[in-house]
Amino acid sequence: MLSTCLLTSCVVLPPTADPPADVPPLLNIAQVTPVLFTPFEIDKPLAGIDFKIEKLAMQSIDPTSLHYYWYFDWDGSNPMLDIFAVCQSKPTCTIVVCDHANNKRADHTLLAVVSSAAQLDGAVTPTDFPPNTVYDAVEWRIDNKGSCP
Description:
Helix content is 0%, strand content 32%. The protein has no helices and 10 strands. The protein has strands at residues 2-5, 10-13, 32-33, 41-42, 49-53, 67-72, 85-86, 92-95, 107-115, 135-144. The protein has a 5-stranded mixed beta sheet with strand order 4-10-9-6-7, with no helix packed on it. Strands 3-5-8 form a 3-stranded antiparallel beta sheet, with no helix packed on it. 24% of the residues are buried.
């Protein structure tokens, strides 16, 4: 079962394929930007915000072989996973809140999933991976204090 930590708490996402047993976390949560577990507020939603996964916890994995998936405001209620996908498969994602649907809302999330294999074709959740895929995730809560045009 995958634990995803928000800025204020941790939740458990129901994966379709559990990572192998006895595998340490893939991500070093101390090396993600912005820092997790602290309130993250923006007052300029037209400006880009950089999110980064800077270092891995597992040094034995070649970082160039990993797959990065980023989802803005994914909540699990819509099986059309692609409409929530943002950024390319890279360790950095720049978000401009006003560029996305539901930009009038005050609360948003950005979910980053890093894996050792590509998602299954037709994936409907961020953790739809082949069996024995090593993956990990972090999720930021973004509080938009500004307004979009």
